[in-house]
Amino acid sequence: MLVSGFSGKLGDDLDTDDDGVLDILPWSTIIDSISLVESLTSGDKYYSDIVLGPDGSYVPAHAIRCDWGWLMGEFEFGLDDSPGVSNVCPVPTAAPGPSGPLSVVVNTIRDFFG
Length: 114
Description:
By secondary structure, this protein is mainly beta. About 5% of the residues lie in helices and about 15% in strands.
């Protein structure tokens, strides 16, 4: 999570009853957030509406932020890293999905990079 107005401290338990809902919100605004996921069936808790992964049977190596959303980065260093410059982002493809008429199919975007 990228937040503003943070007033918490290191080690704070924000989900005190471990039910997957944040009980304590020591910030004024969530600017952006993402959950990197290894398995959708593990029972792990995700604290973002945006879930990226799994990448095969792994947690994504990293995430790349584009104007239209997030996509998985490659495991190999340097292939799609872009520190200090804008990310190279493919044009999203239209696909039916739960978020409406346009949703990004992550595997399709991943295949774009080879």
